[in-house]
Amino acid sequence: xxxxxxKLRLTVLYSFFMLLVTGAxxxxxxxxxxxxxxxxxxxxxEQRVQESVEEIRVRDGQVKPDSDFYxxxxxxxxxxxxxxxxxxxxxxxxxFTGEPDISDGELRQIRDGxxxxxxxxxxxxxxxxxxxxxxxxxxxxDAEESFNVTVRLALILFPALALATGFIGYxxxxxxxxxxxxxxxxxxxxxxxxxxxxxxxxxxxxxKTRDEIYGLAQTFDGLLGDLEEAFxxxxxxxxxxxxxxxxPVSVILAQCGACxxxxxxxEELRGQVLLIQRKAKEISxxxxxxxxxSRADQGRQPLNREQVDVSGLTxxxxxxxxxxxxxxxxxxxxxxxxxxxxxxxxxxxxxxRMLINLISNAVYYSGEGSTVTVSLxxxxxxxxxxxxxxxxxxxxxxxxxxxxxxxxxxxxxxGGSHSGLGLSMVKWIAEAHGGSIEAQSTLGAGSTFRFxxxxxxxxPGKEARGQKNEKNENL
Length: 475
Known about the structure:
Elements: H1 6-52, E1 56-59, E2 62-65, E3 76-81, E4 87-90, E5 107-112, E6 115-125, E7 131-139, H2 140-176, H3 178-193, H4 212-260, H5 267-297, E8 305-309, H6 310-328, E9 333-338, E10 343-347, H7 348-364, E11 371-378, E12 382-389, H8 422-432, E13 436-442, E14 446-454, H9 460-473
Parallel strand pairs: 9-11
Antiparallel strand pairs: 1-2, 3-4, 3-7, 5-6, 6-7, 8-10, 11-12, 12-14, 13-14
Helix pairs in contact: 1-2, 3-9, 4-5, 5-8, 6-7, 7-8, 8-9
């Protein structure tokens, strides 16, 4: 029951109680109906016997009934006896073989074999002073059987009633919960594209009453409006701050360069200036990433696609990163497994930035003497690239969060110049191209990042969806 939807649970409960009430009502009606039918049979029997005395006359010194006396009305058989219980006239029902004694004015129920009968006797004094007895007989079994047919018919129709009740209950519940489905669909769309401008938008004019569900939808729309406004202020703040910080950081870097150009600077002071310069470069890179993501959030980061030899482009990036790894003294070797001649319709600048972020991350989190493997292949429809390392890896609980901005896991995102924005940029670039990216990692054994991009150009809507998906990742 817990795994059923609210719609099905309400339908089951509605059907259960409706059938329970209907069953109880039918039980009471059948119980009372059985008594009423038998009481009606008894009353008709007594009434018919009493009325029959008017059909008995004395003719030529003999007691003779009219022809109506012989007719069977309402399954009631009449017979006439004299004072000595000698049968004179009338009819005896088939199957009644007993000959009970006369019991004047008493209604009796007599069993004869498998059948039950009502017998009612009444004495009548004729004009000539003779006394005769009129006996009425009717079948209890036939009356009960007629009632049992009705009961069996009701039992046969009860499953159909159950199905009809369930169907009507389901349609009624479904219609009642239709606004809830509309709310759910809106939430799922927001989760899919991160578009907080969506609203449930229940039309109050089409609703007969503004019920609790309508109030929930209005509250939800209000919450979405507040969230959209709050995230808009946050994005604007990020963009404004990043712009404002670019100038002072540029001044710091320029002044550091001027100081370092002075050959008379003491070595101790030169080391401090170099440290300031390195940290200022890190801040400048972070500001550049923030501006990139801010423009992406606001849909102001266009893609300039063209047909590019991605095989050659990837090899060039690998060679550049290998040189940087050698200069840093990390001892990391980057291997290439790139199929020649692969071309794709991509933004060259963004593709290079995606590769640089992935490879630099792999080099940074690999130990001395480790190997980073970069591969690229294509099936004609999509290109598939992987960047794999045998470094420190990422814990399973941290893996779903690595695409979040500024997220740092203790084991895989600690220290150094990495700001925690690179993978967010990578994800946006992949999805803006209509592609995807995924990560697999084992703590202490290394990580593998795999991206897939379409070979041919996709529709412009995919770029927008890619940008919205990036927003969704940060909600």
